[in-house]
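Protein 1 of 2
SEQ + STRUCT:
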Amino acid sequence: MELEAVLPTYFPDKPHLYQHFDLITGTSTGGIIALSVALGIPAAQIHKLYRENASTIFSRPWWPLRQIFQAKYKRTNLEKLVRQTYQANFNGQDPRLADVKTNVCIPIYDLMEGRPSILKNQYHPIFVRDYHIPAYIAAMATGAAPTFFNPYSATYADLNGNEQSFNHKIDGGVFSNNPTVIAIEEAQKAFGRSLSDLKILSIGTGHHKFADGCSRSCWGLGYWLRKKRIIDVFMQGQSQQVENLISLKHQGIGKLEGENFDYIRVNTALDKTCLVALDETNLIKLDKLSEKALQVFQHNNHHVIKEILE
């Protein structure tokens, strides 16, 4: 949001975020944001949607024990909000992946096939599977975080008017919580770019370390399921390993090779003074998170503009 606000000052002919990137990727809420940016929706509008509707998206179930049998939340409100936002920016019509203004790749996991899947517009001639999918459907699929929302299923008419099924898709974060490596591989293979050509801006959503150095004797299901510790450690481990792999590609073992491409990772640590849950609805905490994001932007904006966008 803050970056897009200053773009007209530095780039009067390219005032929108999507105009500065050849490929945008994101997983889960990052996938919803990535699709929104690629559709040309202003970042400030996306921020407003999340902040003003958090309690609507994550409305409490009337039966607390429901989580034993069903996901914690129903996605009805989230789907309605995202679809309406996308339609409002496309003359009341549902934009498809074919309508993005820059290229996207969105990780999901396909429970029907039991495998990872990447939704893409047609930025390579053989990518003909996904581009007719409505963007809101792609957003709901990547946002279907296990335990929070049920797997996502829908039907839609493709560009030839044929009805297509899109069943049992879940959050791509189960295998790619940080999809930066996927974007690197796509840039090299689908766009034919060498590693040295790449300029990468990777934006996190805030992180706090899952660590437990306490002396424990009980490490069973009760420990791992409480506070969803097992999900935290899986997501954290995957994201950290991606950063390790990118560091290896970027500067080599021990960072001894020099920079092989331009890369900036923007993220912030969330300590005990600002613990924000994945389904946070407390506006005070959300505003604190926005404040921390602003501080991170102010620290990094010069480098992002000079090293990545120019």
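Protein 2 of 2
SEQ + STRUCT:
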Amino acid sequence: MVKKIGIIGCGVMGSAIVRSLDGFEISGFDVNREKVESLGIAIAESASELVSGSDMVLLAVKPQTYRVMDLDFGDKLVISIMAGVPLADLPDRSVRVMPNLGALVGESVNAWAPSGAATEDDRRFVREFLESFGVQIEVHSDDEIDKMTALTGCGPAYLYEFMNSLLESGKEFGLDEALVKKALHGLVSGALKAADGEDFDVMISKVASKGGTTQAALNVLGEGWGNSLKLAVKAAYARSKEL
């Protein structure tokens, strides 16, 4: 049973995950000691000390940092949230996870894939662990993790880019920026709740009546809007492979 969790790397994502956890003894190590101190958890003096005192290790460092680390994880369960580091480059008993920015508010989309050495108990723990700060989506390979990285890991930035364009349009209309921001937050929240699992094409048809204002806008966007986003996702996927 996992009782003691150690985290190596206390950046934005690692810190967000730690703040969501409850019921564990948590310790951390980061070259910037102040990051660990800000979390109010036990501080390890070295990465090796942290590993030796943990039941499970969360790797939240950058890939290039991990590749120069010389650590013996033994038979401990390792959960990696590093982009671009395949299961073959992780310890035998490991799980690769791609969370997203929703972790900051306990609503992360967590795609994950286990190594062949991960036990059924490991998988059960990982599901519960990931659900403590969002939803868990089990996939079956490094390639599927890379694809989910491009879709959901990078996804918040696509959404913010979309909202920023709407914000700029509102400002060009002469509307107050704070008013538009409030409206856009409500727009996204309400639209997703209204969809509730329905096909997006169906939802578009509910908004866009023939000859109406929405259809006029969609006519301008045409196929270019969707094709550009697909190309962007493919670029993110290719970059994930290169890391």
